[in-house]
Structure formats: structure tokens, C-alpha cells
Amino acid sequence: MRFGICTKAQRAPELRLAGADFVEENVQSYLQGLVDDAQWEGLKIARNSTLPILAANSLLPVDLKIVGPEVDFENLRGYIAKAVERAQKVGMKILVFGSGAARNVPEGFDRQRAIGQIVKFCGMAAELCGRAGLTLVAEPLNRGECNIINTVAEAMTFVKEVNQRHFQCLVDSFHFWMENESLEVLEKAMPSIRHVHVADKDGRVAPGESGTADYRPFFAVLKRANYQGLVSVEALEFNDFETMGKRVITFLHRQWDEA
Mean pLDDT, the chain, as a whole number? Predict the structure, then answer.
């Protein structure tokens, strides 16, 4: 299994020493869909990176809404097209559609209309990703962070509605546990799971750092489904890759082997 860490690509040397296999970057700060080509330095960063940059999260900025009365679909399309083009250039495989603030349903806004807007956006973005050989994955976010697509089960309804090969699903252990979803739900969704995020439920710290998390049942579901994708550590206040990083990657490999 390939384990990576969500951080800046410039820190790849530290990640490599920690035993990580790849970097997961940030769409907004790295691919920079709102920045002109002449100012974008992402390709240079990728060429100098000691690890591949295989995924990126934080797809949309807060003020680029995909839900609500003032959605600018053409602006969204231009932004995603530029981000996808750059992702392809640096060799990425996965773009993560979390972006809770951009997809949050405004109070009083018709929920069915909101669902339709999300489906339309995901269909457009998935089409662009498909042309570039990327996959867009829907990330369920717990109800404390967003009011739509909160569970794997709900994310799967969007995957089925969009019905495009390059729009699939992500499971994040933190959100999965926060929403108290069952392993049976995850097992059912596994044919569409194309990316995984991991962090402990307690404090959203890096795997193993809370001392209370057991990933083996979670990983066992992935293994039974012969999951071949990536697993990224997405944790809060995780910057010490030299010592903590080695500990976390070692912990994950051990949990995977024991699952």
C-alpha cells in the first residue's frame, strides 16, 4: 500500500525520509486555478520534488460557490479546466472534491436545486478530469463542517446520479468515524472508492498519535476489496515529519499488515 501525506510538495525530502510514497497537495495553493500561466510555478516544483505529487485536495476557494443563487457556472468551468490542465502536467491522478464552504447549502435555499447544482458541477468537472486521465472524488465531510454530502452513503448517491467513470468516492476515516458510519456501508461503496484520507477521530491528529485509534477493521474492508489506490494522512498540526512522520507511516504499515 502507498501511504502519503497532505502537505506542500517542497517538503517532499522530509516525507521521503519519513517513509512516505507520495505528496498530496492543495489545489488552491498549488494548482492555482485563478493564477495566470506566467505566474504559476507548480511544474518547476514538481520537477524538483523527490516524491511524486499524486493528488490534491481543497478543490475550490470559499468564494467560488457551486451552490446557491449566484453560481457562475462558466467561471467554475474555466477554473476547473485550468486546475485539471496543470494537474495533468505534474502527473496527478486524483482531485479531491471536499470544499465544504463552496458546496454548503445556504439557509432557505431549495435543497433539491442545490443537489442539482452539485450534480451539474461534478459532471462538468469529471468530464474535464476524464479527458486528462484524472479522477475526481467526492469527499464526505461531517455535519460540523458542511450540510451536504456528509457520509459515504450520501456521497454514493451523487456518484450514481452523475454516472461518470471519472467521478468516484473518497472515504476519510475522521469524517467516517465522526458520522458513525458502519463498515458495511463502506464495504458496499468499495467498488467506487478511489481515494482514502486517514486521521484519528480524537483531535483529528495523525494516525496513531491519539493512542485510541484502531485502523485494522477499516483497513480490512479495503483489503477485502483489493483496494489499489492511495492513502493520504490528512491531519491537523502535523508538521514534524522527521520524527512524527516516521512514527505515523510505520504505524500505518503495521496496521495495514495486521488488518
Answer: 97
CA atoms in the 13 A half-sphere facing the CB of 178: 21
The domains of the chain, with CATH numbers, are 2-258 (3.20.20.150)
Give the bridge partners for 169, in sequence order.
Answer: 138, 193
Q: Which three cell numbers stand for residue 259?
A: 488488518
CB of 116 closer than 8 Å to CB of 159: no
Rounded to whole angstroms, how far apart are CA atoms 105 and 109? 7
Q: Is 95 helix (H, G, I), strand (E, B) or coil?
A: strand
Cα Rg of the chain, angstroms: 18
DSSP state of 106: P
pTM over 0.70: yes
Of the pLDDT bands very low, low, confident and very high (cuts 50, 70, 90), residue 237 is confident
**Paired strand residues for 168:** 137
CB 234 within 8 A of CB 4: no
What percentage of the chain carries pLDDT values higher than 70? Answer: 100
- Which parts of the chain fold into alpha helices (H)? 12-18, 42-48, 73-89, 100-103, 111-131, 152-162, 173-178, 183-189, 216-224, 246-258
What average pLDDT does the segment 71-92 reach?
A: 98
CB of 185 closer than 8 Å to CB of 217: no
Q: Spell out the residues 6+ positions from residue 44 whose beta carbon is closer than 8 angstroms to its own.
A: none
